[in-house]
Design a protein that fits this description.
Elements: H1 2-5, H2 7-10, E1 14-18, E2 21-24, H3 25-47, H4 52-78, H5 83-87, E3 96-97, E4 100-101, H6 109-127, H7 131-155, E5 170-172, E6 175-177, H8 180-202, H9 209-226, H10 244-268
Antiparallel strand pairs: 1-2, 3-4, 5-6
């Protein structure tokens, strides 16, 4: 257990280098997340009657929306005094600081959701596909990829948990903290997938109810995990003891419940 608690002292976030270019475990985990999510979408897409070609094309549209939404959402939700970036949006994607290449850091999951919704609606309008069936494919596929995304956060030594005294905590700069990234990988990824998959096999009746269930489950589990995650240092607590993540997740919970009810009623009418 002591080795685990000091894992960051023994672990290099850089996986390997190619011609001096460092490849981080973070990047490898996110690539893995994309691959797993894509393969899951192809598999579940077949069950919902979607040809692989449709999934391939949609995957590109969705990823563009997710990346743009995640980056823009980060500046809207998590960067105080962001007026400069809102009036100079191209600077959000500038990988250089003072002439030095530092990469693009800072993504918002909730921003990614908004970008995803916009790109999906455009795809639906252009391609005339069955929107709700496609969303149910998404609900089954995203949680599996999400697992590796949060593991990537853990390996990159970011988004730390709050101070704790639990025996499975890990030391971050000499302070014992919750490994909250792994909590999120487990609950928001694995547990969410298992619940949705079980529901799909046992009770699924109406197109669109799975995506409603996903929004609800993610919002609940994210809010739970936020209780163990250190608030963003530039924001702190937004209202009383609520973080930005909890506030944004509350909208997902409400939206998920409403969408689920609406889709269930649509089957009965």
């Amino acid at each position: 257990m002591e080795y685990w608690q000091h894992i960051y002292s023994h672990f290099n976030p850089v996986a390997f280098s190619i011609f001096g270019f460092k490849i981080h475990w973070y990047a490898l985990m996110y690539i893995t997340a994309l691959i797993v999510g894509y393969l899951a979408a192809v598999k579940f897409g077949e069950k919902f009657g979607f040809d692989k070609k449709v999934i391939d094309e949609y995957f590109i549209w969705a990823e563009i929306g997710i990346i743009l939404g995640a980056r823009i959402g980060y500046f809207i939700f998590y960067v105080p005094n962001n007026s400069y970036y809102l009036f100079h949006p191209w600077e959000m994607f500038n990988p250089f600081v003072d002439g030095k290449l530092v990469g693009i850091r800072g993504m918002s999951y909730h921003g990614a959701v908004i970008g995803f919704i916009i790109s999906t609606l455009i795809f639906w309008k252009v391609k005339k596909i069955d929107l709700w069936k496609l969303m149910d494919v998404v609900a089954l596929s995203v949680p599996l990829g999400y697992i590796f995304g949060r593991i990537g956060n853990f390996l990159n030594q970011e988004l730390f948990g709050r101070v704790t005294d639990v025996p499975w905590g890990i030391y971050v700069n000499g302070v014992l903290r919750h490994p909250s990234q792994l909590y999120e990988a487990f609950f928001e990824g694995l547990v969410t997938f298992l619940i949705i998959y079980f529901y799909y096999n046992k009770w699924y009746k109406c197109k669109g109810e799975l995506i409603g269930l996903y929004l609800f489950l993610y919002g609940v589990f994210r809010s739970f995990c936020e209780m163990f995650r250190e608030p963003d240092p530039q924001l702190g607590f937004i209202f009383m003891h609520f973080t930005m993540g909890e506030i944004l997740s509350s909208f997902m919970i409400v939206g998920g419940i409403l969408l689920y009810i609406i889709r269930r009623k649509s089957c009965k009418s």
